[in-house]
Give the backbone structure.
Amino acid sequence: MQVKSRHHLRSDEIDDLESSLKTALGIDLDGESYERVEFTDTDREVVLVDGAPLVASLDGELFVTVRGANEYPPERGVVTVDAGAVSFVSNGANVMRPGIVEADEGIDAGDLVVIVEETHGKALAIGRAECPGAEMVGDSGKVVATLHHVGDELYEFTV
């Protein structure tokens, strides 16, 4: 990911970002500095919070990265997978019903969600829900399309 430009967010942009993440995930970002990073080779953007890539545009929406979700564990919008799903999800696989042990019932189809592992609650991936949270636990079918995961180009991005 080749950096094209970096610039600080305006205070109203910071307020909007903090508000949207509070609403979606119940987290309070409390950074001192917020910088938007644009790239030459992708339309994805990253927001550095105190120099760390904690927020990124995913499908055109600003949302926490895996690093951001581990730094600021979400209270809502979480899908928890069992130990058997960890290696698949960590490698970018979509999330299937049999691997899910719990999902926030407030999730609607189309929402961005944080996928965590059940043992330690660590974030493994960020994805887009394909059904409501109440329908995620079950026997078969894909329920979350993975957009960003541990070890991908965005996860490995450093400034």
In short: DSSP finds four helices and eleven strands in the chain.
